[in-house]
Amino acid sequence: MNKYIKLIISAFTFGCISCSDFLEKYPLDKPSDATFYSTESELTMAVNGIYFKSMYFQQAASPLNLVLDCASDIGWDRDQGSDLQLLGEGLHVPTNETFNKIWFNCYTVINQCNMLLANMHKAQSITDPKIYTRIEGEARFFRAYHYHLLVNFFGNIPLLTEPQSITDKPAQTDRDQVTEFILNELEETAKLLPIQYTGDDIGRVTQGCALSVKAREALFSKKWDIAADASKRIIESGIYSLDPNYNNLFNKQNKQSKEVIFFVQYSRVNQQTHGVPGNLFSRMASGYSNKVPAQSLVDSYYCTDGLPINESSLYNAATPFKNRDLRLEATVVVPGSTFQGYQFETHPDSLECWDYNVTPAVRRNNQDVTNPYATFSGYCWRKYTDEEQTFRLKSELNIILIRYAEILLMYAEAINELGRMDNLGYEALNLVRERAQMPAIKPDTQENIRKLIRQERKVEFAMEGLRFFDIRRWKIAESVMNGKLYGRPVRDYLPNYIPTFDQNGMPQYDAYAEALRSFDNRTFNPDRDYLFPIPQKELDINKNLKQNPNY
Predict the structure, then answer these.
(1) What's the pLDDT at 393?
(2) For residue 93, what pLDDT is reported?
């Protein structure tokens, strides 16, 4: 992989040249050097520039997918007035910079892809045919992937398949037409990409990446038959399998995991890092705790008998973390556990805590209680906080974009929505559950299986960005994103603190809400908020663009 990263770094100059002139001037301009793309090395440099721009886009020093769930019903961003916080509160506007950054970055990549695809024929006769085909596939994949992001964030968007001049002012293309392009393009792209790589090329996109994004776009678009077919092809390829250890997916072991399909690789040596641990670590571990999970997520994990906490005889609200789905403590740092070598406790009377990083352990002033900016919810995220990570703001932990568990659950969801739940669907669903030592699901009604699949997606992928999209595509955001956001009890966990759950699996705390920490008020306008606003900067530049409704 070192060779791959070095190529990306060497391509950064090209990436800057090809997009340096179109900041706030969308659409994008062409490179000035008309002789570029004339050799195999220049094609390689160009495609690695695409990798660089595609893979290392960050928001709040974190990969975008990891922070999206902070604007969903299961997480929160503490940074006062941040775009993520405003988005969760329904107070976002077209001038928020996050929307502009996403739009600009996606179209920068798309234009780089279009430039390469339009000009790479110059080097075809002197390029190894396998490399030429692979580069074409990579460029087409990243173009389709960024259209997948754009269409699910913004809805109708300009569909550009040729290089653009700064004088061009394209209008939006209907969302359904963009989706058709994405699906068709990814199907063709899968034929151009290798099934898998070895050695230094591990990390480049593969056939599995293309089919995975195709399945996700089809699922998001309710094209159940296409989603089922693409997912099934990945399953039947035999290339991927679930990692036996769920925790290993979010530490340095994920580099070798057969579950990882599409991911971002980081290296301090090559100055490619992220700040996820710094955002997520507890105050005792010298973190900011500014991205935190909510009580609604904690209560969503079932007990080990496969029942929700309000139905299970195994649940005791006074000791709420016992007998729970193993993914709870793999995802969330709960009071009473150890985190980064410190006792994690957020009860207000716990003014001191144990420091196990020294022998013998000693008591320390508990910053997770006394620091005014400690976790507001009383919990921290555990994913991507590898115990061996000492670089809080310069982490090189790989970040997963798509993994095999998602493929399994996409197949199960798609085939169930088609009304054809089959043995493979149940097997796929149960493989994910059984890894967490949850009991197997038996055949049931379509509605009950739908509920279980949505539950699985919620707890399996928490803090991986999928919840943000799921509550929108299921059209439940208006139900789960309205009202107060709660954290742990202000003081003790008591036996009568057991929520009920609505039809969307959302905990209801009416009976004891005043006993919980309350730290935000969520609002969601169903006539507006299912889509982001088109960035105001783009509307000012291109009068052919139309704003999304009610912004």
Answers:
(1) 79
(2) 98
Q: What is the rounded average pLDDT of the residues 261-267?
A: 91
At 312, phi and psi to the nearest 5?
Answer: -90, 135
Give me 308's structure tokens.
């929700």
**Cα separation of 215 and 207, whole Å?**
12
CA distances from 33 to 18, 36, 165, 204 (A): 9, 6, 14, 27
Closest CA to 144 of 121, 113, 102: 113
As a whole number of angstroms, the distance between CA 542 and CA 435 comes to: 50
For the beta carbon of residue 372, count every other beta carbon within 10 angstroms.
6
Rg of the chain over all Cα atoms, to the nearest angstrom: 24
Of residues 203, 164, 224, the one with CA closest to residue 413: 224
**Is pLDDT of 61 > 90?**
no
Token pair 């929700």: residue: 308
State yes or no: pLDDT of 238 exceeds 60: yes
User: CA separation (Å) from 340 to 225, 247, 325, 357?
Assistant: 45, 15, 22, 8
pLDDT of residue 114: 98
Q: Is 394 exposed, middle or buried (0-12, 13-18, 19+ CB in 10 A)?
A: middle
Contact partners, residue 378, CB within 8 Å, separation at least 6: 335, 346, 487, 488, 517
Q: Of the candidates 72, 66, 74, 101, which has an alpha carbon nearest to the alpha carbon of residue 87?
A: 72
Task: Please report the beta strands in 417-528, taking only residues with DSSP state E, as ranges in sequence order.
Answer: 483-489, 500-501, 507-508, 516-522
Q: Which domains does the chain have, with CATH numbers?
A: 2-60+91-248+536-541 (1.25.40.390), 280-294+313-388 (no CATH)
Does residue 335 have a cis bond before it (omega within 30 degrees)? no
Say if CB 457 and CB 409 are below 8 A apart.
yes
**CA dist list (Å): 443 to 305, 331, 503, 505:** 17, 29, 20, 20
- CA 3, CA 48: separation in Å to the nearest integer? 11
Q: Which residues contact 43 (CB under 8 A, 6 or more apart)?
A: 37, 116, 120, 123, 127, 131, 132, 135
Residue type, 265: Q
The average pLDDT across 161-185 equals 95
